[in-house]
């Protein structure tokens, strides 16, 4: 978002099932977690993704904790990417794609 104006369109979420008959069996809806990355250059952004991928392999962590730490403790630099992941495996896949 740039400039002085920003616009957001909000819509009501679809109703959630309230009875067991309305709830699909053996499905748990997962909400994607945004995982922000930023760096000074595109090359540095790929390197950060590689380091994060290595970190996940060495230190499994909760996805929302990782996303929160990256959003609140890292500088927001010029080159940015936001990866949406609902599991650690989908985050690893997204990071792998970003490193190439």
Automatic annotation (TrEMBL):
One of the Pfam families matching this protein, by short name: CurL-like_PKS_C
GO function terms (MF aspect): fatty acid synthase activity
Highest taxon above the source species: Bacteria
BP-aspect Gene Ontology terms: fatty acid biosynthetic process
Record's keyword annotation contains Transferase: yes
Keywords: Multifunctional enzyme, Transferase
Amino acid composition bias (Low complexity), ranges on this chain: 19-30
Region (Disordered) residue spans: 1-41
Protein name: Uncharacterized protein
Native organism: Streptomyces galbus
């Amino acid at each position: 978002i740039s400039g002085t104006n920003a616009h957001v369109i909000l819509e009501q979420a679809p109703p959630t099932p309230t009875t067991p008959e309305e709830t699909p069996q053996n499905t748990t809806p997962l909400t994607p977690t945004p995982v922000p990355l930023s760096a000074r250059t595109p090359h540095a952004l790929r390197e950060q993704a590689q380091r994060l991928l290595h970190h996940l392999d060495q230190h499994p962590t909760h996805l929302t904790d990782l996303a929160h730490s990256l959003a609140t403790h890292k500088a927001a630099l010029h080159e940015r990417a936001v990866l949406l992941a609902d599991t650690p495996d989908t985050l690893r896949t997204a990071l792998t794609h970003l490193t190439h």
